[in-house]
Design a protein that fits this description.
160 residues, mainly alpha, 6 helices
């Protein structure tokens, strides 16, 4: 069950990530075009691109967690017997789960605090860009919990 939820969330994240990056590229292109070719800079493009980058970073991190593609130093882990390696990975996953839960909690508080603040250029609630933190962290948490609950693989070091 958790694996299906993780797969669905990952697919949604991948699609939203593609959309956000494409829109960000178009907006940055328009920014350059208007500023240097038309000499009429758009005032909102820099802020919009920054918020897109925040969302892309958090959603991209969630996709990387699902694929097991975050950077890792495995020298010590590779020296251990497989059983100890699985135990160490389990402890690491529990630690990451705790940290992500704290980030989700803090992100929700941040969104609530900033819900009445308005962004300078776009005039949207600051909760919109900050919402990337609890959403991205929640998706990462689901992926890590799904990995913990899934059956152990033949290779304990394989990504979830």
């Amino acid at each position: 069950m958790m694996e299906k939820v993780s797969e669905l969330l990952n697919r949604i994240c991948e699609l939203v990530l593609i959309l956000v990056l494409a829109v960000m590229a178009v907006v940055v292109f328009l920014q350059v075009l208007f500023r240097y070719m038309i000499h009429l800079p758009l005032f909102w493009t820099e802020e919009f691109a920054r918020y897109c980058l925040v969302w892309a970073s958090l959603l991209g991190s969630a996709v990387a967690v699902k694929r097991g593609e975050h950077i890792a130093v495995t020298f010590f882990l590779d020296q251990l017997p497989a059983r100890w390696g699985r135990i160490l990975i389990f402890v690491a996953q529990l630690s990451v789960s705790f940290i992500l839960a704290v980030i989700v909690w803090g992100g929700v508080k941040l969104v609530m605090v900033t819900s009445t603040q308005i962004s300078p250029a776009l005039r949207i609630p600051m909760a919109v860009p900050y919402l990337a933190l609890p959403i991205g962290s929640t998706v990462m948490l689901v992926h890590v919990i799904s990995s913990i609950l899934s059956k152990p693989k033949d290779n304990p070091r394989s990504p979830s």
